[in-house]
């Protein structure tokens, strides 16, 4: 696929993730008023789906290699049926070790007229934290078996607003590094929290590069 088509998919998925986070916040507001478990579970579902759309977005820049890698699998080789974010990340890491987006601070104008983005140091959903949260949320996608142990739903109710904020902090402004035969560079993406489409800037290099201090 042409890069512009892949960018459109990436932007669409990131925009959907932001919209689902907004929906989750709305359900959480309702939950604080009613203490109704279905409201909390609706918020959990929207965050889980937001994380899955972020994983789908991550495929787009490396879609060709990802599909080839998955096609070589002996079990479930059709990548169009993938949905589990953790397994998607495992496959992507074999293609591009820098696939996970890096959260950025707003650009600052430099003395030479260029613009510099510093990396956020904290407060956003890191890859490790993403995978932990994704698995934790998955435990609450089904009705509770009354003969099993507690799912600690109230602890998650306390933590979910923090998780939503960390996910937003990742999407607000981030960079996705790309290394393919057709393109070496990065996409810098800005996302707002009001449901507007994300904006994307393309930065290209003339050859191989490396990402320092991830």
Strand order of the largest sheet: 1-4-5-6
Number of strands: 6
Overall form? globular
State the helix count: 6
Radius of gyration: 18 Å
Question: Structurally, how many domains make up the residues?
Answer: 1
Query: In percent, how helical is the residue content?
Result: 40-55%
Please report which band the strand proportion falls in: under 5%, 5-15%, 15-25%, 25-35%, 35-45% or over 45%. Answer: 5-15%
Note poorly predicted spans: none
Provide the residue-averaged pLDDT. Answer: 93
Q: How far apart, in Å, are the first and last alpha carbons?
A: 29 Å
Largest sheet data? 4 strands, antiparallel
Determine the structural class based on helices, strands and strand pairing: alpha+beta
Which series of helices and strands comes N to C? HHHHEEEHHEEE
Short description:
The protein is built from six helices and six strands, in the order H-H-H-H-E-E-E-H-H-E-E-E.
């Amino acid at each position: 696929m042409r890069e512009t088509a892949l960018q459109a998919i990436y932007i669409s998925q990131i925009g959907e993730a932001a919209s689902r986070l907004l929906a989750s916040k709305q359900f959480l507001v309702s939950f604080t008023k009613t203490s109704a478990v279905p409201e909390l579970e609706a918020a959990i579902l929207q965050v889980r789906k937001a994380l899955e759309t972020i994983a789908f977005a991550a495929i787009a820049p490396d879609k060709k290699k990802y599909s080839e890698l998955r096609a070589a699998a002996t079990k479930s080789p059709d990548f169009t049926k993938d949905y589990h974010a953790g397994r998607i990340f495992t496959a992507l890491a074999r293609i591009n070790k820098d696939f996970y987006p890096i959260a950025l601070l707003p650009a600052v104008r430099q003395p030479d007229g260029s613009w510099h983005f510093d990396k956020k140091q904290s407060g956003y959903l890191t890859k490790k934290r993403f995978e932990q949260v994704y698995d934790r949320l998955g435990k609450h996608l089904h009705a509770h078996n009354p003969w099993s142990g507690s799912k600690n739903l109230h602890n998650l109710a306390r933590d979910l607003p923090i998780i939503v904020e960390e996910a937003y902090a990742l999407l607000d402004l981030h960079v996705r590094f790309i290394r393919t035969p057709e393109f070496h560079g990065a996409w810098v993406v800005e996302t707002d929290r009001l449901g507007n489409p994300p904006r994307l800037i393309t930065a290209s290099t003339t050859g191989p590069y490396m990402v320092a201090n991830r």
